[in-house]
Amino acid sequence: MNCLLCHSPYNPIASWRQLLFLEDVDVLCPRCRSSFLFIDGRLCETCGRPLDEAASSPCTDCLRWQEDEQWGGVAVKNRSVYVYNDWMKEVVALWKFRGDYAIVNAFRRPFVRAFHRSFGREWHIVPIPLSPERLYERGFNQAEALARLLPFPSFPWLARKHSEKQSKKSRRERLETDNPFFLSAHPPINGKRIVLVDDIYTTGITVRHAARVLLEAGAAEVGALTLVRA
Question: Which residue range or ranges hold the Phosphoribosyltransferase domain (predicted)?
């Protein structure tokens, strides 16, 4: 078969586990798979940032969020799967900005494992939405594509107003952005634990904006599962 990313032919070696549990073979060749860098080891208990042994948790960035008058009450536990290294930047650009939807299948197993490790069946999955204009431009919502990898249903409980792309904004501009999210119709949120799904966690403002809307609508707790931690 051919690798989903580099398109080089390779022969996947089926393990006994794959044969016994009918697991799909890896869609990536070993070289492409090994180019991703997993997040592991000691993490910030809030944002999931990798920490060295001397660093405190929560990290200094999360402490600033907690002490902020506007955002101190919007606590979001984020967990991410991969580091945003140069290889991941190339893959995200190919997937997200050049419309190669099938690339999401390369992330299935690690994304599902991360969901079970940090969240679980009692959490309701809500993908971060795109505005209608951005969805038309891109052709698909990468957060919805990731949510579909998970073994439970996802819920379109949020909608989004159109605005300039986050990737074009500086950190300060991102933090000063008005909340683009609002509830879609009248979802049954009260008392529920909700995990937001998105592709990249950068400053954390996107998931906090979304979490604020959900918490104000009565959600008991909001977390986030993201593919990449920048």
Answer: 138-229
What are 229's strand-pairing partners?
Answer: 83, 201
Q: Looking up tokens 């999360």, which residue turns up?
A: 62
pTM, two decimals, is 0.91
Number of alpha helices (DSSP H) and beta strands (DSSP E) in the chain: 9, 6
198: number of CA atoms within 13 Å, CB side? 23
The size of the chain, in residues, is 230
Dihedral of alpha carbons 202, 120, 56, 212, sign: positive
Among 56, 115, 109, CA closest to 80: 115
Q: How far apart are CA 26 and CA 3, in angstroms?
A: 9
Q: What are phi and psi of 59, to 5 degrees?
A: -70, 170
Amino acid residing at 142: Q
Domains of the chain, each with CATH number or no CATH: 26-229 (3.40.50)
Q: Whole-angstrom Cα distance, residue 19 to residue 226?
A: 30
pLDDT digits 0-9 by tens, 166-199: 666 666 676 778 999 999 989 999 999 999 999 9
For residue 72, the surrounding DSSP H or E stretch is none
Residue 18 phi/psi, 5-degree rounding, is -60, -40
